[in-house]
Amino acid sequence: MNGRTAIVGIGATEFSKDSGRSELRLAVEAVRAALDDAGLAPADVDGLVTFTMDTSPEITVAQAAGMGELSFFSRVHYGGGAACATVQQAALAVAAGVAEVVVCYRAFNERSGRRFGSGVQRREPSAEGAALGWVMPFGLLTPASWVAMAAQRYLHTYGLTPESAFGPVAVTARRHAATNPAAYFHGRPITLADHASSRWIAEPLRLLDCCQETDGGQAIVVTSLERARDLPHPPAVVAAAAQGSGRGQEQMTGFHTGDLTGLSESAVVARQLWRTTGLGPADIDVGILYDHFTPFVLMQLEEYGFCARGEAAYFVAEDRLPLNTHGGQLGEAYLHGMNGIAEGVRQIRGTSVNQVAGAARALVTAGTGVPTSGLVLTADG
Amino acid sequence: MHTDEDLTERLKAFEGRPAATEGTGKDPVNLPMIRHWCEALGDTNPAYSGPDAIAPPTMLQAWTMGGLSGHTGRSAAYDELLGLLDAAGCTSVVATDCEQEYDRPLRPGDEITFDTVIESVSDRKTTKLGSGHFVTTRTDIRVGPDLAGTHRFRILKYAPAARPEKPPRPRPVVNRDNAGFWEGVRDRKLLLQRCTACAAPRHPWLPGCNACGGLDWDTVEASGEGTVYSYVVMHHPPFPAFDPPYAVALIELAEGVRMLGNVIGVPYDKVRIGLPVRVEFREHDDESTLPVWRVTG
After folding, report:
1. CB proximity B223 to A under 8 Å
2. What is the pLDDT of residues A96-131, one digit of tens each?
3. In 3D, which of B44, B35, B42 has the Cα closest to residue B108?
4. Do the domain assignments include residue A67?
5. Which range marks the domain in which residue A260 is found?
6. DSSP string, B67-98
7. Nearest CA of chain B to the CA of A365: how many Å?
8. Could you tell me if residue A166 is inside a domain?
9. Where residue A235 sits, what CATH number does that domain have?
10. Which SUPFAM superfamilies match (chain B) (predicted)?
11. Chain B residues inside the 8 Å CB shell of A247
12. CB-hemisphere CA count at 13 Å for A302?
């Protein structure tokens, strides 16, 4: 699989707070835009991959997007942790010869419809429901609150303050979003003081530590590297793709094992990506690290080996790696990490609004605190 | 039954009528009360002590107060006004604000008299507390014939707004794999699962052991001692079952397992990593008993 497939098309709807149309419509628009970008037609598609959380089934997207028969369709679980794994599924299918052109998509009205930030207060008595049942009765009900528990322990362990540790991540994202016309926060950079004075959501997390909530859709087209070379854009080669789940892994409420200062699922992905590519953090030109909440960007930098444990805040403050050059989910849009994959592709193509000169190797990651995934995208040749 | 307009009209008829006539201070202006006032407020202004002391001007109302032995000089009109409001359902009262003007300083030995007039009664107003009428009185405080100051005082007499009923907390999610834990809590016991193969205690409850894969287990009652491993202070969004801000803590038990809970015995902003805690049980409503962690050190 590795190095044999490439991302050849990216397409998105506008990123808004109220799309005014259905999630299915958003999915279809994004898929069509990605195919146009790839120079392919709906009839070329024989595989579709999305998230288990997505409300638009593969068959319905195929039907509404003018596609015919599908020979591969798959979904990945665990919320935003699925993002890069959709590309892994596509690459596996293409490399195995079960499909030739696979489109990965994610679309939702996450701001105007069901907002994840509004929290959960009731779950069915399934295994997943029971896992949340250990935290709900005590009032820990939102993604921000679940991340905040680990964030507090991280600050305590390394003797950091929320302002100095998390502020640079937010400022960096908004600086990049400010120059990205597609970003919701285009033209609206923030300062460390803005971050420090934003209101508490779940201490130690402030408003500006939390990603946006967004309506929109994003799609990614994957095919063989061989075919990619005949298509309009330079291929973004899927040099490595990996999933990871740590020992005793939970979904967002992983409080019961480990020291809460790291992300064991990211370590599993990092090991695979570095081993497969023979690359290391020093070889990476740009990092697109999933930023649902600022503390987990720090922990990812540490898990991927960009810096020592407890040092990531300084690493970010010193701009030692071009990071989330689209503005991240804090600044551009919250598309469950799929918009980050698109930014990785633009960097390899050389078309990012915040282009890193000569970028040839991008690390892209998916949601953490849940079973996760990651990609190394490289230029061809 | 009177309409709102009827009531307002009757209330407004009290404007200009006396609320107290020829009241007298219970004590002359005196140094001990001045000293207590200054100490309570932390006011170290030298003007309020020594041989030429004056009373802090803001004590103006204090010299008119009835104390526990009751008011002097309160008029029938004022009692009638309050009675009318009570009868209209405005049974609660809250002081909202006061304004004072100072004409001459009060000195130890001054004996004050005062007259209070019902200056105004507002139209019906609806506030967060409830719906009612603001009543403003003006008290002129004199020493002999001289005006020492004026104290304008406003209260809201109101019918308390119905409080929205607080919904119950989210329920534990009970199924066949974890029912034993929640049954234990109902019986005020904190039960940990223990693998019978490798003796590892575990939490949350699961049908098998992550350490060795063993499927057989028994339970052990936790000592109930633990420390705060981490915590979150919840602010937003405001869930109606809880009163933000509130703290949620991750407790590391003496047995080595962790579980989530709320900490009691310190305010939400005093919860810290490392605080020692001990389990108690609290009934939140008829159907829900939850463990709760009291700070012990």
Report:
1. no
2. 999 999 999 999 999 999 999 999 989 999 999 999
3. B35
4. yes
5. 5-113+212-379
6. GGG--SSB-HHHHHHHHHHHHTT--EEEEEEE
7. 26
8. no
9. 3.40.47.10
10. Nucleic acid-binding proteins, Thioesterase/thiol ester dehydrase-isomerase
11. 210
12. 18
